[in-house]
Amino acid sequence: MPRITPFRLAAVCMLALSIPLVPAAAAMGKGVPVTVRVVGTAGKVLAEKPVAAKTTTIPTSPKATCFGKGTGGSGKPVTLPGATALGALGEAVGADSVLRPLLVTDHFSFGIAICGVGGDLVKAGSESSWYLKVNHRAQSVGGDQVKLHAGDEVLWDLAPSYPYPDELALSAPAKATAGQPFTVRAFSYDEKGKRTPAAGVAVTGAAMPTGSDGRTTVTLSKPARLVATASDEITSARVPVCLGGKCPGGR
């Protein structure tokens, strides 16, 4: 079972206040348009999608026992008022089966803690937890207290331990020519949102990792969604590149 060490307790309190939504969730109003990205184990992107963040009601789960025996949820519904980072995750979960099953608990007095999203779980006996960033900045309060505005980018990442990994971002042209190389650039954002060039990063379609300036060259034969990855950083958002008037489809 996972240990709740002093750090773990703080991490759960501050960052694991995440409650995913199920299909029966209720909502009010049109909501605030934001983008939600969920990155699971080993940097795998589970979902990246636009949602309307709004008041959302979701249940907790008795199966959410990753923090120890007897710490499962009551199963009672919880309402998240307004446009919040937690509510946005809930909306994404309700719209995408890849993010289910969802395991959260209301056992702790400080708030709702998350054990798993889409089968990716807080690991037993580890310091892993769900890490929240909005517009590349780590949040110092729980997701239910983070108010969102139109256009915000919300990231939930299953971080293996503390200190939390930096977040990658990728800059690439919207259009390119098949077989012709073009330059992309990777950046890394720390918890405060400070951006620096990311060296040694792998990019879709690139033969070589990024250099010290974060740049590398990509060659594509068909439209693609490019991502930047590194073993110790959070996978970037996917950047679509169109070729010959055709753009990448899929998720």
Describe this structure in words.
This protein is mainly β and 251 residues long. Helix content is 8%, strand content 38%. The protein has helices at 6-15, 85-95, and strands at 27-39, 45-59, 77-80, 102-105, 113-117, 120-121, 129-134, 137-138, 153-159, 166-171, 175-176, 182-189, 195-197, 202-203, 215-218, 224-226, 228-229, 233-234, 239-243. Strands 3-2-1-9-7-8 form a six-stranded mixed sheet. Strands 10, 12, 13, 15 and 18 form a five-stranded mixed sheet that branches. Strands 4-5-6 form a three-stranded antiparallel sheet. The longest helix has 11 residues, at 85-95. Residues 1-29 have low confidence and may be disordered.
- Subunit arrangement of the protein: single chain
- Main sheet: strands, sense, barrel: 6 strands, mixed
Number of strands: 19
Can you list the strand order of the major beta sheet? 3-2-1-9-7-8
**Which descriptor suits the 3D outline?**
globular
Number of helices: 2
Approximate strand percentage: 35-45%
Q: What is the string of SSEs from the N terminus onward?
A: HEEEHEEEEEEEEEEEEEEEE
Fraction of residues in helices? under 10%
Structural class label: mainly beta
Radius of gyration, taken over Cα atoms and rounded to an integer in Å:
19 Å
Q: Distance between termini?
A: 34 Å
Spans of at least 5 consecutive residues with low confidence? 1-29
Mean pLDDT: 87
Topology, pairings included?
Blueprint (H helix, E strand, L loop, with lengths): L5 H10 L11 E13 L5 E15 L17 E4 L4 H11 L6 E4 L7 E5 L2 E2 L7 E6 L2 E2 L14 E7 L6 E6 L3 E2 L5 E8 L5 E3 L4 E2 L11 E4 L5 E3 L1 E2 L3 E2 L4 E5 L8
Parallel strand pairs: 1-9, 10-18, 11-19
Antiparallel strand pairs: 1-2, 2-3, 4-5, 5-6, 7-8, 7-9, 10-12, 12-13, 12-15, 14-17, 16-19
